[in-house]
Amino acid sequence: MVSPPTIDWDAVIADPRFQELHRKKQTFLTTLMIISVVFYFLLPIGAAYFQDLYRVKVWGVINFGLLFALTQFIVAWGIAYFYSWRANRDFDRMARELAAHYEKKAG
Amino acid sequence: MQTQHRRWIAWALAGVLVISSGTALAQGAVAPEYRWLTFAVFAAIISLTMYVTYLAAKRVKTASDFYTAGGGITGLQNGWAIAGDYLSAASFLGIAGLISQYGYDGFMYSVGWLVAYITVLLVIAEPCRNIGRYTLPDILAYRNDPKAMRIVGALSVITVSTFYLTAQMVGGGVLVKTLIGIDYEVSVIAVGVLMLAYVLFGGMVATTWVQIIKAILLVIASLVLVVLVWLPYGFSLPAFLQDVVGDPKVQTRVASLLGDPARNMSAIELGQRFLEPGLYFKSPIDQVSLGMALVFGTAGLPHILMRFFTVPTAQQARKSVVWAMAIIGGFYVLTLFLGFGAAKHVGPAAIAAVDAGGNMAGPLLAQFLGGGPNSFLGNFMLAFVSAVAFATIVAVVAGLVLAAASAIAHDLYVGVYHGGDTVPPQQQVRAARIATVLVGALAITIGIAAKGQNVAHLVALAFAVAASANFPCVLLTLYWKRCSTGGIVAGMIVGTVLAVGLTLVSPNVTYPKTVKAAAQKVLDGEAAKRAAIEVALASADLHAAGQAKLDLALLDKAVQKANDDLVKFAGRETSFLGLEKPLFQLKNPGLVSIPLGFLAVLLGSLLFRDKRSEALWPEVYARQNTGILASKAASH
């Protein structure tokens, strides 16, 4: 486990650009993670305690419960897409700039 | 070297075909006169994967090739491979079966398996790609004491993989036996030998391509079935479900699940009930516990984590998860149609008559859609789905064996025994191959030894250990500055011991006293049930009489099982741990063991500070976020 000594890691994490990347990512990821976990656990908890709501027919024989379960797929895909769109647009660029700067500095 | 590979692969292929076709054939779902068709489809798929393995074997020269395909897999390819690795027979056949038997609850169950990948995507995949190399312990060893990390990490990888592997081997053996009627032991050996051929010669390259091929076949098979099921309704979801809930077979099933309360319900109400929750899951807290194990455990499964080392960059790792989520989620949406379609066309009772767990829903639906048990097309489709199921088991087992073997060879042998990377590359590959053979032989042995055991809960246990031990450790070493060697060791031990220990005293274990009481109840109620069925059999209503026949078969089966249970557990009152009834009431330990696993890492880290862990924090944190030097990860 030899780490390349040429990169000053303390300088990287003290770099304002790193701090900004870190802050943006942290907020974004934490928010998405909480939303997805809460939304997911609503499904089984609702199925146990709100059976009357799940029974309400919405579209022919299709009831609220079935639509809610299908919505879980849409939301999961939506979060994945949203995250990767944001990461591709912002985070990757910021990370690349930092990597280029410090790898060049290290030679 | 190459001709030697070719010769060995040819031998393995011939061996599997001879074993499969020359064995004594018992009754399976495929009728004997059509069995050649199944073998033809099997042979085609096996030949294709063997050819891929042959090509891959030429490319495996270094440890990096063997463990991670040299990091040369693209995001799209890896997405399909993750889907192929993840969609085990349990989800391919099991979830469709659950929907066919219990309706809504089966579909709700599938959701957690997809949501799990949000955790993988957001917090695990990219950081692991940025700082990792071949295995899960590599990530832990980066900032903490390498030897200690490799020992606890490898033990955890082996534990999780062995649980998962046992479930796959036993489930696979039963499945192949049910489908085509070859002996259980022969099925297990065939799965084991094939898997060994892929992993041993082709390493991660072959394993990846076998998983990709299998995932594509699985999606094609499901799509064809869904189009056939859905087309008659002009692809209208309400019209399709209307027909499902209007089916007397479905209504009878709901009535028998509900028991007494069903007496006051009309046929329409009974059918509608199939689309409502509560027919399978009785305890919400059990479900939340299982959900936690799935949502946090997937991110700690060694064979899934390992897949992120096969792509070159964090961006490609991200792309793989997004693709995997599209494929896995899309597949679960398709199973909605497979499950409900099987309930409507084949009928829940007829499915349960072949396999009590409902695993045959998909294959039987395929047979029905092709024209039924006496048609060529029907049997061709059954053969195709059966062959895909077989490929599924082999592909999943290959991924698991590779993960366990890499923990033994890379972490224990190279990392701990030799103390690092001083081992020459060729020797590393040889060690990996020897470990593969060992794990493969172990898998076959366990598979045969565990014959007849109920191992379904072992998959849930694997997820629980991964969620309670691996996940907190990986997450906190990546994101928490104070995380230390002591914390990881504590987390691994507490998480694993709690998850396994609580399961051993949970309702999953057999309690002879309870089993015997249930068996006695079946026997006590037999006479009354038989009388009711006699009445229905004599009925002029053809449908009612047909249903009664199935009910009679199910009753006979239940009575047979009850009598067997009474004999099997005669003179035994307690579980193998000496308990009369469960000490811990949840079927899945996640709800308790995951928070305590996290707590153990926290306390362990605060109690045992580690200078090295903290000194290396800036490096880990900068690298996992930015990917600095990620391209040079292989040389660190």
Biggest chain contact:
A-B, 56 and 59 residues
Portion in beta strands of chain A: under 5%
Helix content of chain A: over 70%
Structural class of chain B: mainly alpha
The best one-word shape of chain A is: elongated
Number of helices of chain B: 26
Number of domains of chain A: 1
Strand order of the largest sheet of chain A: 1-2
Q: What is the percent of helical residues of chain B?
A: over 70%
Would you list the SSEs of chain A in sequence order as H and E?
A: HHHEEH
Radius of gyration of chain A: 22 Å
Q: What characteristic shape of chain B results from the CA principal axes?
A: globular
- From the N-terminal CA to the C-terminal CA of chain B, the straight-line distance is 30 Å
List keywords for this structure.
heterodimer; A: 107 residues; mainly alpha; two-stranded antiparallel sheet; B: 636 residues; Sodium/glucose cotransporter; 76% helix; globular
Draw up the topology in text.
The complex is a heterodimer of chains A (107) and B (636).
Chain A lengths: L8 H6 L1 H34 L1 H5 L1 E3 L2 E2 H43 L1
Antiparallel strand pairs in A: 1-2
Helix pairs in contact in A: 2-4
Chain B lengths: L1 H21 L12 H25 L3 H6 L6 H12 L2 H14 L1 H28 L4 H6 L4 H35 L3 H47 L6 H9 L2 H11 L8 H7 L10 H14 L4 H4 L8 H32 L2 H7 L6 H9 L6 H42 L7 H25 L7 H23 L5 H20 L7 H27 L3 H27 L21 H18 L3 H5 L1 H10 L10
Helix pairs in contact in B: 1-2, 1-9, 2-9, 2-18, 4-9, 4-15, 5-6, 5-15, 6-13, 6-15, 6-26, 8-9, 8-18, 8-19, 8-20, 8-21, 9-15, 9-18, 9-19, 10-15, 11-12, 13-20, 13-24, 15-17, 16-23, 17-18, 18-19, 20-21, 20-24, 21-24, 22-23
